[in-house]
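Q: Convert this sequence to structure tokens.
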Amino acid sequence: MRVSRFYTGQTLAEDTRISLDGETAHYIARVLRLGPGDALILFNGDGNEYHARLENADKKQVQVTIGRATQPQRESPLHIRLGQGISRGERMDFVLQKSVELGVSAITPLWTARSQVRLSGKRLDKRLNHWRGIVRSASEQSGRVLLPDLDNSGTLPDWCHEAEEACRLVLDPQASLTLGELSPADKVCVLIGPEGGLDAEEIAIAEAAGFQRVRLGPRVLRTETAALAILAALQTLWGDLAGQAS
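A:
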């Protein structure tokens, strides 16, 4: 039987006891219906997994005793930072979830000319919290031991000009360059537009900031498909999908 994994922002150490509350406690006690003595795994982004035992639980709080710590090698040697044009509802959720599963290191939701979602104030804060929950859940499910960074939403020009990676890529179905023509890199920055893609001015801004235009084959991909395709391709070329140990 698979042992459930949970992220916590708390400091974790062997042979200590901690309390978990909020949504995590509710999920453990009311959804999974775990009880005293049941095993679970905790991680907090320090690179370790902590094997723990449930001591007691109610819908508001659970107590666990932490046992041994292990260091599973599940993080890719390839550092990928994704700038994703903000898309509608489930499409954006899907991109975030699958990007985490495919080993992305950091994600910045970007407002672009063709973004069909406009949020500010409390509505934006609520959406960002929702997205952070997706990143956390995907990390728990996929076995990640580092929690990918989800930055606050930003503008495309600012994000492009702040990029420091030597390999900077912007997806453009009209480009002639393909991934197979690039020199291997260990840090990559990828820019993807929302539904409808990036406009000519945005692509020009990216190019001025040192981004190379690349295409993913002869077909036009939806924004959510493009993110999965390039992440999987990069991890296969230079990361750990081809079997390279991290």
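The radius of gyration is 20 Å.
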